[in-house]
Amino acid sequence: MAKQDSTKGQLAGFVQAQVDEIERASALLELEKPVQQIVKNLEDLGQNCRRMNEELGEKKVSSSGVSIARRNLKELEHQMVFYEELPRKVQGLHDALDGGLLSFVEVYEKWQEIDDWRQKMLHELSVAAVEKSDELGNSKAQARIMASMGSRLSAIESVQNRIYAEVWGCMHHCVEIAQFGKQRLLDAFLVLELMESRRQRYADSKKEVYLDNQMKPVAEFSVPTRERCKIEVTTFLAKRIADIFRAAESEAEASKKDLFTPVLEAATQMMVDLEIVQSDVAPCFPSEIDVIQLFTTTYNTQLETEITKLSTRPDVGIAQRLQIVQWIDYYNTEIIKYKHSRASIILDRISQDLMKAYLDEIQVQIHTWVTNIWKRDEECIVGPQGELQSTRPNDIVNILKSQISIAQEWLSGRLVGCVVATCLQVLMEELKIRYDSIAGKLEAIDAEMLCSFINDAEILQAKCPELVEEISFAETDSEEKEAFDTFMGDSLDTTSTDIVAFATNACDLIVNKIFHEVEQNFVQFFNKYSADLRRTGIRSEEDIKKEFTSLQVISSTLRGEAPPESNQQDTGEILRHVVKLIKTTSSQEASGHKSKEKPVKEGSVKKKRFGAISKGKKSKSKSEKDKTDPAKNGAPETAKESTSRGSSFTQQDEDGDSFTVQKLDMAAFLGS
Fold first, then answer.
1. Same domain, 211 and 70
2. Of 312, 343, 374, the domain-final residue
3. What's the total number of domains in the chain?
4. Residues 17-27, buried b or exposed e (16+ Cβ, 10 A)?
5. Is 562 left (phi over 0), alpha (psi -120 to 50) or beta?
6. I need a labelling partner for 407 at 20 to 30 A (CA). Which of 198, 330, 386, 460 fits?
7. For the residues of 303-331, what is the DSSP string, one character each?
8. 0.85 exceeded by the pTM?
């Protein structure tokens, strides 16, 4: 079929050539009489010139009129020959373009010479039409001349169309041509330079304009060639990109497949073309035309439209949106590597919106799941060291890991870091919610639950590094790993510190709870036995503080710290006994003598002389035991005990229990 079509084309060309020859022959026959008349006139002119020469003499200089006539005659002869050979020259240019007989630049130069003649004729006809027009503005002479010269003018214009088609075609398909025929692209730019020189010549004259065969000015000729080159490149590139996406959509619809992947693949293929533009096309373009910027700017404009349309489709799921986010990040990262190119602000905004929507969604999911984990009924487990634990930390970390794993499947580098940071943020928010809930109802919370929360927080803090340990990057993609590390920074350390702070605050809650319960017990005790306590001399808060001051002095002295501010008269004796006791203990340790009986006696003395509040039965049994044990109760101790008990008393409380209240004798306590 191809050979048949080629043969048909050749036959059609041959027939057309024969028709043109017949038309030219017919035109020449029509001009036979005018030519004969011109020849006759020229013969008469020649005879007149010879006669004048005879009259003036052979040695005399010819007149100016004769010289002008000769020049006109020569010009007329040249014009006639040129006009006669014009069809053959035009056809020769067509043949040169078809067969490559001449270089493209040579074809243009020969055509420009012919086109200059055409422009001259058109301008003369335009002027003549104005001077010799009728009342309606019509010129019969112009119409007659155009009718006779129309075929030749059209033939010249046909060569012009082919030259322009070649030049702009090279601009349109510069990516393909630069790979397989770079010289063709270079020749096109040489022709563009010649076209610009000619256009500049017309612009400098300020009188002449470039006309078409209808004698109307050509608007494109007033635009600088380089500017028109930019317009041609960007216009065709925009149309080509749109056609690529429409073809991908049509192919997906024809095969009944999801169009998401074909569209994204088409967008990725464009980046491959951009690499060719930088390596092969850009060196062919003149420095005044930044072809890379033309491509990147057009890419941004077209992709902003296509990606926006793709991202707003209702059938695009979460995974596909993450693919769009990753592709935009890849595109903007790659595009700025090219000279004078900028990332797309609109695409970046689309990526941010999609990423924000995704992060908001996983935040809601994580909050819901973690809240359900906190709320579920679960018994505390005793750890290997006796600590209270639960399975909640493992479940929470597994939830966070699953979200990060899904994100890493489609995202990379900085974007994965965004997901990890969001998971850590939600974790801290959940811990704060849990902590605030416990702190808000501290009285109703069991101490076991508080301990479990603290231990769970410690486990979460230890497991935080696990969130990023399973994130892996390709060994060849160091930039991706670097981007992830840069984005994460010290987020993990900060989160660990914050979790420890929560655990510490929870420990404070335990202390507060213990002291609160002790305080309540003290309040209940003092309210219940206030009358009995007053008999011992404890009548106010100051009296209670005074009793405990002695203990603070002893504790500070034993620790080697400065004792609290107090009355030296009240605490001086106690302080001397403590120092004496310390010296005695140090001497015993230095001598190496250890006695097992003495600690027992001292311990019993402390128990007796400290004074305690106990149930009646226990107190009674202990008193009987002490009385029957002569080893523990010597004469001095008994005398002191009876003296200290002189101010004590026994009373039956409301529920039938008895208690003993004994005023603290610190000197007896220290064994003085």
1. yes
2. 343
3. 4
4. eeeeeeebeee
5. beta
6. 460
7. HHHHHHHHHT-TT--HHHHHHHHHHHHHH
8. no
